[in-house]
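[Help] Beginner question about ligand-bound structures

Sorry if this is basic. My supervisor gave me a protein sequence and a SMILES string for guanosine-5'-triphosphate and asked me to "get the holo structure". I don't really know what that means in practice or what format the answer should be in. Inputs are pasted below exactly as I got them.
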Amino acid sequence: MVRLSGPAAEAIARRRFRPWRPRPRLASHRLYLGHFLDGQGRVVDEVLLTVMRAPHSYTREEVVEIHCHSGPQVLREILAGVLEEGARLARPGEFTLRAFLSGRLSLSQAEAVLEVIEAKSGAALRVAQEHLAGGLGRRLAAARDALLSVSARVEAALDFPEEAEEVEPEALAAGLAPVAAELTRLAATYREGRLLKEGVRVVLAGRPNVGKSSLLNRLLEEERAIVTDIPGTTRDLIEEAVSWQGVLIRLTDTAGLREAGDRVEELGLAKTRERLASADVILYLVDHSQPLDAEDRRRLSDLSGRRGLVVVNKADLPRGLEEAELAQISPFPVLKLSALTGEGVEELKDRLVAAVLEGGVPATGEVITQARHHEHLRATLAHLQAALGHLERPTAWELLAEDLRGALEELGRLTGETAGDDLLEEIFSRFCIGK
Ligand SMILES: Nc1nc2c(ncn2[C@@H]2O[C@H](COP(=O)(O)OP(=O)(O)OP(=O)(O)O)[C@@H](O)[C@H]2O)c(=O)[nH]1
Ligand SMILES: [Mg+2]
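Answer (accepted):
No worries, everyone starts somewhere. Holo just means with the ligand present. The predicted complex, written as structure tokens, is below.
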């Protein structure tokens, strides 16, 4: 599809469009069959053309869409045609930028358009659609209004000191506290929101030969990684994504943890360590038929404070493992399974999703998914906490006003009210052309 937006959109398109039946005027929001012609009047393609008159369009400007058979050459010639007639190429995300500038979308909705396009799992798409519906934007706008009203009272007290006595610190604190509580709640959803949007980074780790690659294959339901009984089979990272219960899971199989035997293994182990450091969830595998060794004990204690599961693999083999000791030193819940027979693997999937999303998959999009939003929320909250602190000392009006301005500024950057051109440029440049 080739899309035009702006006051001359229809005039430009009509110079190259020959409707199947002659039409002096095209009605808005109708599809017209016809031919798109090149500069010599030759047919480029049979197309469907639609005009959407302002303000009932995506950008609120006049928009024309030309639907063709597609294919690179057809699209190139139609695009060349409208450019010859006076259109110019859109910049990345420019249609959505115009929708934002015309007030049709809030900044968080405009960002949600990109989230919808990029959604890689059902859960990510649902969250993005909630954002697109505008709930988040409305919540933030309400918080900003509440802040503005407190700020206005403080500014008035500064400008007219004789009236300042009438402004009660308790009343101001009572105005700020619910805003701080709401923004704190939103900021706390970021971890979950990010996991839903970007997927959960799950790393399989453990000593050589415990069955990491076997488990990866079992989880992916394909023979993705090489499995042998030779310790040190996997040397490089193996990454694949799956979707469970609508949640995108990015699995990484790693090289078995031990003293490196050669340079290749050493490099593999360095990658393993790096990946372990950035994992959202760690599956630490041990072998049911073998006793724990010093490496396991050390690794497990290093992992305390992280999120994960200890997987006791090879449950089909006779037990050689001190289960009581493992339960004692494990920083994670312990789960027994067999990658060979598949027993216990379904439970692993359920436990893994539950470990990531403690409250289950959120039903609404009331979660923050963008790092940018999280940063501005945190900065807003820092100013709000400082403001609440100043309120305990009644003389600190200047400082109070300063922090309230700071909070408003940060919140405004989040919602787009005080977004500068550089911020808009940064946000919309992540879109592709035509969106
Ligand atoms: N009996 C039994 N054997 C298993 C199980 N899982 C894996 N194995 C066997 O254990 C051996 C090692 O399996 P891998 O999946 O290659 O182990 P790994 O942890 O990836 O090993 P490295 O890549 O060397 O670190 C293979 O012979 C597998 O067939 C299991 O649940 N039960
Ligand atoms: Mg392996």
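A couple of things worth pointing out: The domain at 2-89 is CATH 3.30.1360.120 (Gyrase A; domain 2). The chain is about 50% helix and 15% strand. Feel free to follow up in the thread.
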